What we know:
Layout: H1 3-8, H2 11-26, E1 29-30, E2 35-37, E3 40-41, E4 46-47, E5 52-54, E6 57-58, E7 63-64, E8 69-71, E9 73-75, E10 80-81, E11 86-88, E12 135-137, E13 142-143, E14 148-150, E15 153-155, E16 160-161, E17 166-167, E18 175-178, E19 183-187, H3 191-200, H4 207-213, H5 220-229
Parallel strand pairs: 1-4, 2-5, 3-6, 4-7, 5-8, 6-9, 7-10, 9-12, 10-13, 11-14, 12-15, 13-16, 14-17, 16-18
Antiparallel strand pairs: 18-19
Amino acid sequence: MKKWLKLFVPVKIQNFIIGLYYKVKYKLVLDGNCFVRQSSFGPNCYIGDGSKISCTTMGNSSYIANNSSITYTKIGRFCAIGDNVRICIGNHPTSDFVSVHPCFYSKYGQGTPSHVKDDLFSGHKFLDSEEKFVVEVGNDVWIGNDVSILDGIRIGNGAIIGIGSVVTKDVEPYSIVGGIPAKLIRMRFTEEEIKFLVNLEWWNKSDDWIRANATNFLSIKKLIDANKKS
């Protein structure tokens, strides 16, 4: 944000101007009082009331519902993210180090005076070499309400995460997981059906293809049969 905007413009007006920028640039639909910063979106995306999105990318036709907090996250296409979803960024040492406080392992100290000159422990688990993302959500993923996701996590295409889950490890494509910590409940489809979907990558198809095949999405067998004929 421009420095003059922060210094001289009230916060509510700042949010209005920034929201307008995202609406115009990305045709993003913002509902109610949203906070969006340093993020990019594909077409037909939606952010619900009270959600805070920062340092995040989101693919076509994905949405985030109300009161969610998403940061440093890469989200694919056609994702459905529920209310009160949290990306829990940050890690602390759990062994060897006597204290969990960053002042003993981070030169920044998290707002308190640091007692070390160098970073001795990585506070984030970045998934990319450019250190932009700590969580990656695939395509066609459904994340239920009140889910917390630790950083360093990859969620595969087509996965479903149950309400109230805490995700502490990677989630396989087309799996359904739930609980604290989240564990595998079942796979959505057979191995052959999952292989077909992985190869098809329908979320990357053109809008014309998706419209033409929309009725076939009612059944995995129907979609397979339709694409065998084409």
